[in-house]
Amino acid sequence: MEGVYGFLAFYERKTAEFYEKILPQIKDKTARMLLKILVIDSRKHSEVFRELCGGEIPEEPPKSDIGALALESARILDENEKEIGRKDPLDILTNLVKYEKMLNEEYLVGIQAKGIELVEKREVLKKVFDSIADDEKRHADFLSEAIRLEKASR
Ligand SMILES: [Fe+2]
Ligand SMILES: [Fe+2]
Asked: If DSSP codes are grouped into helix, strand and coil, which group holds residue 46?
């Protein structure tokens, strides 16, 4: 399970860095505020998983025991991160809506099911994952709203 937590700590931090990197290209003030909330939440999630994986974020994300959804969402993030500065930020952000939706599903189903196998911490972990999944649900909404606002401001 440490591998899953390490993987998530790595990718949540990368998500925060992704949004920070794209922020200067966004003109609409409210859209920027929504993206900043995604930065803050992703850092928070990264910190939670850093604690769970033993205190250090791995330099390379461990791929073992990772579900297909998590792997696919990591691929979306990696590929789009390379396009920052090369493609229209609106196109890049549009690709990330799917990423945020997939992560929400993964927290609710895959990761929670694995965490719940750790019987002695079951109740606490369920609450933690529920709270993160709840943030992720909001992320897809906030991101869609930020894209709408930025489009309208052009
Ligand atoms: Fe997150
Ligand atoms: Fe998210």
From this structure: helix
